[in-house]
Amino acid sequence: MRSIKQIKNIKGKTILLRVDFNVPIKNNKVLDDFRIRAALPTVNFLLKSGAKLILMTHLGKDGKASLRPVIKRFFAISKITPNRVTFFDNLRKFPGETSNDQNFAKKLSKMGDIYVNEAFSVSHREHASIVSIPKYLPSFAGLCFEKEIKNLSHAFKNPKHPFLFILGGAKFSTKMPLIKKYLKLADYVFVGGALLNDFLKDEGCEIGKSLIDENNYGISEFIKNKKLILPEDVIVKSRDKLINKKINQIGKDEYILDIGNQSVKNLMPIIKKSKLILWNGPLGKYEDGGEKSTKQILKLVAGSRAESIIGGGDTVAIISKMKIEKKFSFVSTGGGATLDFLANGTLPGIKALG
């Protein structure tokens, strides 16, 4: 995989720069520009080298969303004049993007001289703009793309010890490979979020109306692993009240909203002694008010001496609101791509640049 620093005779060339500006938008305004800001060092590097840029991104799943709010925010924070940077239309507007149509990829490739992938967060998708344009143009990795690979690799290539892995969120099917892998690699694996509900149910605990995954993932084989740490208490929503309860006290009409106060305290000494902390996924249902413990532990990790790697998605949304991105060693732009890379060590988009 070649870096943009290795591009020769770049002046005057047109570069197709695949970015991921699929950001949250409300009332035509960008709510979180973390991914846009992450791509700016590459944009500035290429412009200073004398290149012209065509930025390509998708927005939303169906391609119907307008890129106008994204383009407006990009030029506002980058302070770049529009004559050197143009935007291609929403890639998902074209069926050939998601179907990885070769004719569509060829058409895209004819717009430029060089291809650069700066969209790590969508590089787990075998889409035309990710895996097929590199077949037709000299192709390179952007600066942020390189940083993603370098920093996330610290979690599985000779990781520092003690190594704490904090895993939250939902989607058990995507998290199961991580639990299996990091129970071997890490010293501690702490599980929270909706994932916890499945573990509690497997142990025979009442979980009330809490979200669970009905599939059987063979959780029983992990329950007895000494590296696995489960919260001993949780915050439940009981009618309109939030109550801190032991995990064996949950009522049938309640649902788990967050991990409990004692569970946060139990993590403190582990965070303090850890030299590497990898975190993916919120520990509570933050959109319903269950973000307290996630925020408390994020502050503890941010204040620790450990190398801290935060693995994208919903956790990053919380970090952005707290404005503490710079207090961690590395914050990934990816969601599903980060999970896949941590589990498999590569992605289709990485292989395409090889």
Helix proportion: 25-40%
- Give the CATH architecture of the largest domain: 3-Layer(aba) Sandwich
Unreliable sequence segments = none
> How many distinct domains?
2
Largest sheet: 6 strands, parallel
The structure class reads alpha/beta
Number of helices: 14
Radius of gyration, rounded?
22 Å
Q: State the shape.
A: elongated
- Listing every helix as H and every strand as E from the N terminus to the C terminus, the arrangement reads EEEHEHEHHEHEHEHEHHEEEEHEHEHEHH
CATH class of the largest domain: Alpha Beta
CATH superfamily of the largest domain, by name, is: Phosphoglycerate kinase, N-terminal domain
Please state the oligomeric state of the protein chains shown.
Answer: single chain
Main sheet: which strands, in order across?
A: 10-9-8-14-15-16
Beta percentage is 15-25%
- Could you tell me the CATH topology label of the largest domain: Rossmann fold
Whole-number mean pLDDT = 95
N→C terminal distance? 5 Å
DSSP E strands, number: 16
Task: Note down, in words, how this protein is organized.
Helix 11 links the parallel strand 14 (276-280) and strand 15 (307-310). Helix 7 runs parallel beside helix 13. This protein is 36% helix and 18% strand. The chain has 14 helices and 16 strands. Strands 10-9-8-14-15-16 form a six-stranded parallel sheet. A five-stranded parallel sheet has the order 5-4-1-6-7. A three-stranded antiparallel sheet has the order 12-11-13. With 354 residues, it is of the alpha/beta class.
